[in-house]
Amino acid sequence: MRSFRVGTVGSSRSAQMHKRFAVDCEKRLGAAEEWGARDPFAAEIEFGFGTKVRNADTMHRMKPPKNELFGLANMRYEAEKELLAEDDIQLYENQIPGMGVEWEEERDVIKAYFTVKDEKMVEELKDRVRMAHITPGLENQPNFKWRTFAEPGEIECELIIWTKGTEGPILNDFIFAGSVNEMDLSEVVLEDKTDDIFHF
Questions:
Q1: Residue 23 Cα distances to 5, 16, 29, 30, angstroms
Q2: Of 30, 110, 137, 176, which shows the fewest CB atoms inside 10 Å?
Q3: What value, to the nearest 5°, has the Cα angle with vertex 12 and ends 9 and 16?
Q4: Cα(106)–Cα(99) distance, rounded to whole angstroms?
């Protein structure tokens, strides 16, 4: 289980304040880095709880502030096709709520799921995503494809994002996904996006 850790600070004054806080806490409650940590109960070990939870950590999915400085949607495509480290994949995945990295055809890809009411809305959705594909920088634009599954009264659309010639997600894949994630699709999809990587 992850232990409590005093947060990162951005100034020397804040650093001093946090240091004093940590020292005070250590005096009062013992070693600060051990807050929240405990040995698992026997039943928890037997059940294997830690192996049954995806992304079992304290990180939360959130979008950065929407302005000209932050956010995947405001980044340019990179010229290099450099594979991302696992920590970076997790970091960027947390910035695209409603999407997720999944295994597809012997590699990891980014997937998103949409529900629309008919074929007309399917084409409208595809047109809007194509527009998101046209982001600053033309090198190494990611590839994407669709799968659709017809259900009574609705159609489930699966968007798959990857880059040819790579063995896993690269930054450009997340930039494209971030652009799609920023789009207002409320007039197209039947349901609002949630933090569930499987449906929205």
A1: 13, 11, 10, 9
A2: 30
A3: 80
A4: 19
The amino acid at 50: G
User: Locate tokens 């005070």: which residue?
Assistant: 24
Q: Say if residue 101's pLDDT is above 90.
A: yes
Question: Does the reported pTM lie above 0.70?
Answer: no
Strand order in the sheet with 143-151: 99-103, 108-116, 154-162, 143-151
How many whole angstroms separate alpha carbon 96 and alpha carbon 175? 10
Cα 80 to Cα 39, 70, 140: the distances in Å are: 44, 21, 8
pLDDT (0 to 100) of residue 76: 83
**Secondary structure (H, E, C), the chain:** CCCCCCCCCCCHHHHHHHHHHHHHHHHHHCCHHHCCCCCCCHHHHHHCHHHCCCCCCCCCCCCCCCCCCCCHHHCCCCCCCCECCHHHHHHHHCCCCCEEEEECCCCEEEEEEEEECCHHHHHHHHHHHHHHHCCCCCCCCCEEEEEEEEECCEEEEEEEEECCCCCCCEHHHHHHHHHHHCCCCCCCCCCCCCCCCCCC
Please tell me the predicted confidence (pLDDT) of residue 32: 43
